[in-house]
Specification:
The chain contains 8 helices and 5 strands. It is α+β, with helices and mostly antiparallel strands. The N and C termini lie far apart (56 Å).
Length: 203
Amino acid sequence: MMLNQINLSGVADEELLAAILEKPVVRELMTQYGSVQQMLWQASKQELENIKGIGTARARKIQCIAEIAKRVYRVNNVLPPVIKTPSDAFKRMEDMQFLAVEQFRVIYLNTKNGIIAEEVVSQGTINSTIVGGRELFRRAVRLLAASIILVHNHPSGDTMPSQEDIAITRRLVEAGKLLDISILDHIIIGKGQFESLKERGIL
């Protein structure tokens, strides 16, 4: 199928990708990830760079395409502007279930639990050294946030909180009390499911 047609809606995902990358490279990506969607959600820059025919520059371009796809996904899924329940937080961040590495995000809320801002605090193995409270609360003060929701994913799909997850949560709760900023919840996201540390009685 030629890609110079006006309407590309009927073109297969692999063919669209082959307009950017050589077909052998596309075949290798499909072998490793199974689909274009999984590749865009899961592939890290390092993994892409290790595939013959991609290299650093192309890996970066693919990551940019992936980021655009994720943002379009989030806009089209009518994400809740107010967090009333743990389910709302999960819906807001459910794209995290597809990530191949752990990521730690923060949702900043106003006094009515409306979302002021979101940010990625760290990526990689989550531990108390990486997730430092200083910058997190500095941003909260700057935004005049009344409260915070912590969110991170377990790439394994298991949502059971680790001892490290619990320790980080409790440390940040205590730090927030000094600034009168509440940690409302810590949501752990797995494959199609989530765990609320507040609902578990840990907060």
